[in-house]
Amino acid sequence: MKYLISLCALLFIGAAVNAQNPIVPPGIYIADPSARVWKDGKLYVYGSLDESTTYYCSYKYHVLSTSDMENWEMTPDVFNSRGDSDQVSYSDKELYAPDCAHQNGNYYLYYCQPDRKGAEGVAVSDSPTGPFVDGNKMDLNGIEQIDPAVFIDDDGQAYYMWGQFEAKIAKLKDNMMEIDTSTIVENVLTEKEHHFHEGNFMFKRNGIYYMVYTDMSRGNRPTCLGYSTSRSPMGPFKYGGVIIDNDHCDPATWNNHGSVVQFGGQWYVFYHRSTHNSRMMRKACVEPIGFNTDGSINEVEMTSQGAGAPLSAFEQIDSERACLLYGNVRIQLFEPGNEKLAEIHNTDNVAYKYVDFQDGADEITLRVKPLKNGGTVIVRSDQPWGPIIGMVKVPGELDGQWQTITSKMKGTSGVHAIWLGFYGEDTQLMDLDWLVFNKH
């Protein structure tokens, strides 16, 4: 399903994404997702908004919300640092990763900007979707600042976390707008001991405090969300492991940032994936997670289906639902509200996890734009080296136009990961808009 997005004169945009990843419509890039469940029974996602491939974030926040993890709404421009709705009088800089807390009958939006020494602030609203007003600096005792997060314990005490490479935590005062500087604990998480990079998020389960954060444990890129646990919100924390790794969501995969929340009896991890062969243009995604009896969290994989059931093979699968991309291929916006797989080279591969063929399909249709060289799309099940179930030949065209090409395939039933392998003369093979399977 493709969506035409218009922000003009709308309070919100309904985006029925059928619980698929990403959870934001094509052309919208919400990163650093902090998921919160409020007393109205809905889940809200607060995040930064990417608008460029050359710098992080933008000067505004949008909020996502859902009551069922299937249908999502987006409220635009809930807080701005520039323009007619500017609520940060002291700075015109970009708005980085936010968080939100509900206390004293108000919703408190915690934001940060690139300044580092005076980067973090708080704004207030009586609604979870804003508008949030009167942004004010947080006094963090001169400590460098990035990525604010708030946790409210069962006794009502609120805690404030922030930091890069070394995490800090302190108690918030009752007004939720100031920290008690006498309670600051530095190095509650470190890169050496906990693989901590940035992006704190705390939750509590069965008396255990979990700190979720961007994790550096798998090399020089912070592509993981990891966690550490403690019996106290102020630590000490013990490293627990990786929850999810977004490596291979894009050729330029760089960071991750997210949250963990329980909703409707199920626990979920929210995270982001980059697009456009960029460290930016990141899109919020979600996966269900589980806990072991000792409280540890099992690592989960990135999927296309997200919080929902496997994708139906008989409904159009948009190309940007690919959850793994190997090679030069990347997800790219090519018209308002529509994304494609672009810059496809010989031997590139992408995966869709998972697709339900039900009683069987024997035909595949691709909407492609042939480029100079064209090529062949090899369709495999389960693994990139798995059984070949189909093959689609795309002729080369110097001035290719979008067209649909249908090809017979081996009868396939049940639920499978689907891998598309692209083969041809080096570069300029084709662009891909969507795929669908059929039975005849």
TrEMBL record:
<keyword id="KW-0378">Hydrolase</keyword>
<dbReference type="InterPro" id="IPR006584">
    <property type="entry name" value="Cellulose-bd_IV"/>
</dbReference>
<dbReference type="GO" id="GO:0030246">
    <property type="term" value="F:carbohydrate binding"/>
</dbReference>
<keyword id="KW-0624">Polysaccharide degradation</keyword>
<feature type="site" description="Important for catalytic activity, responsible for pKa modulation of the active site Glu and correct orientation of both the proton donor and substrate">
    <location>
        <position position="147"/>
    </location>
</feature>
<dbReference type="Pfam" id="PF04616">
    <property type="entry name" value="Glyco_hydro_43"/>
</dbReference>
<dbReference type="GO" id="GO:0045493">
    <property type="term" value="P:xylan catabolic process"/>
</dbReference>
<feature type="signal peptide">
    <location>
        <begin position="1"/>
        <end position="19"/>
    </location>
</feature>
<dbReference type="InterPro" id="IPR008979">
    <property type="entry name" value="Galactose-bd-like_sf"/>
</dbReference>
<dbReference type="InterPro" id="IPR023296">
    <property type="entry name" value="Glyco_hydro_beta-prop_sf"/>
</dbReference>
<dbReference type="InterPro" id="IPR006710">
    <property type="entry name" value="Glyco_hydro_43"/>
</dbReference>
<keyword id="KW-0326">Glycosidase</keyword>
<keyword id="KW-0119">Carbohydrate metabolism</keyword>
<feature type="domain" description="Cellulose binding type IV">
    <location>
        <begin position="310"/>
        <end position="439"/>
    </location>
</feature>
<dbReference type="InterPro" id="IPR052176">
    <property type="entry name" value="Glycosyl_Hydrlase_43_Enz"/>
</dbReference>
<dbReference type="InterPro" id="IPR005084">
    <property type="entry name" value="CBM6"/>
</dbReference>
<comment type="similarity">
    <text>Belongs to the glycosyl hydrolase 43 family.</text>
</comment>
<dbReference type="GO" id="GO:0004553">
    <property type="term" value="F:hydrolase activity, hydrolyzing O-glycosyl compounds"/>
</dbReference>
<protein>
    <submittedName>
        <fullName>Carbohydrate binding protein with CBM6 domain</fullName>
    </submittedName>
</protein>
<keyword id="KW-0732">Signal</keyword>
<dbReference type="Pfam" id="PF03422">
    <property type="entry name" value="CBM_6"/>
</dbReference>
<keyword id="KW-0858">Xylan degradation</keyword>
